[in-house]
Amino acid sequence: MVTVVHPNLTDTDAKMSARDVSVFYGEKKAIDNVSIDIPTKYVTAFIGPSGCGKSTFLRTLNRMNDTIPSARVEGEIMLDGEDIYRSGMDVVQLRARVGMVFQKPNPFPKSIYENIAYGPKIHGLAESKDELDAVVEKSLRRAGLWEEVKDRLQDSGTALSGGQQQRLCIARAIAVDPEVILMDEPCSALDPIATAKIEELIDDLNGRYAIVIVTHSMQQAARVSQRTAFFHLGKMVEYGRTSDIFTNPLEQRTQDYITGRYG
Amino acid sequence: MSPTLLLLLALGLGLAGWLAARARAWSFRRASPDGRLASLPSYHAWYVALWIVLPVVIFVAAWSAIAPGLVTQAVLASPAADQLPAFGFQRQTILNEARAVATGAAQGVFNPLANEFVEPYRQAIGKYNWIGIIVTVLIAFLGGVWAFLRLKPDFAARNRVEKIVMAILLGASLVAILTTLGIFVSLVFETIRFFGMVNPIDFLFGTHWGPDPMANAANPDPTRYGAIPLFWGTLFIGAIIAMIVAIPLGLMSAIYLTQYANPKLRAWVKPALEILAGVPTVVYGYFAALTIAPAIRDFAISLGASSASSESALAAGLVMGVMIIPFVSSMADDSIAAVPQAMRDGSLAMGATTNETIRRVLVPAALPGIVAGVMLAVSRAIGETMIVVMAASTAANLSANPLESMTTVTVQIVAMLTGEGSFDHPATLSAFALGFVLFLVTLGLNFIALRVVKRFREAYE
Ligand SMILES: Nc1ncnc2c1ncn2[C@@H]1O[C@H](COP(=O)(O)OP(=O)(O)OP(=O)(O)O)[C@@H](O)[C@H]1O
Ligand SMILES: [Mg+2]
Question: What transmembrane ranges does the database entry give (chain B) (predicted)?
Answer without folding.
Answer: 44-66, 130-149, 164-185, 230-251, 272-293, 313-340, 361-382, 431-453
